[in-house]
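help with this record:
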Amino acid sequence: MNLNLAPTDLSNRRLLRAQLRKLRRSLSAVQQQQASLKVIKHLRSHPWYWSAQHIALYQAADGELNLAPLINVLLADKKMVYLPVLAKWPRTQMSFQRITADSCYQANRFGLAEPLSNASQQRSAWALDLVLMPLVGFDKQGNRLGMGGGFYDRAFASVRVKQPKLMGVAHSVQQVEQLTAAAWDVPLDAVLTEQQLTVFTTD
């Protein structure tokens, strides 16, 4: 797909978002399962994974690449695992809460399962080591097109003390030729697909 988007051209961003969401939803259950297993292999072969202790990921929906099988792998590898928890107020904010094999979940306002909120188990965005982020589209420069809510952009835009590695996770069919980043977009350090792990940063 070859579609260049200006950051102010919201209609084009909405169109591309709709096209890519439809594309990833068209993947079969077998393709989704195979992709989940392949990204685990790629991730565990990279030094960022082994140097990271605090790792955040997401609950998949709408055809997103499912990372649920990764949770048990992370726990077995003695990683501390975190999932997003949406704030009741302000409603545009989210936190990252540690989970274990015994964690309890509830549906948030988008219908996604999230751990029961517990401030004592939450970690600041800057204190994470590696964040596996969902996305709708990405390009080879590390630009990311999200769902439009801006939760991840807000969570990491103000991080100044220590920036965790931000790794987008997607099916390879979600790559586009070029995305023009909006002023508020937080760039990715890497993208992980079923085909490969691509790093954009040099450190």
In short: The CA atoms of residues 107 and 113 lie 4 Å apart. The mean pLDDT is 90. The longest strand covers residues 80-86. The chain has five helices and twelve strands.
